[in-house]
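Backbone Fold Data
Goal — fold tokens
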Amino acid sequence: MSEELIGISFVIVGQTLAGKRFRPSDWAERLCGVLSGFGAGKRVQYSPYVGPGDYEGHKAVFVDGRLYDFEPMAYRFVLHFARDNELRVLSNVSADQADKPPSADSAR
């Protein structure tokens, strides 16, 4: 694990270091589901510190560095997942930088 990432926000991109798309296609939702809980109406709620999204056209998981302060084992778990699966990890990237779907106005 890269110790320089401890406590830093990062994104795990669904692309291997060899440049291949990571499978299965719902890997980001599955990984975030491991760290989720049940909220109102018995619906799954993702952690406020870990969420799925898209980055550079790939599925991604955005991890808020504050997760380390609250649950260091969970923070290390997602880092190890990325390392074990040889996925791209970019530091200092937040969910605000996720790919945005085109707005209805831009389609006109």
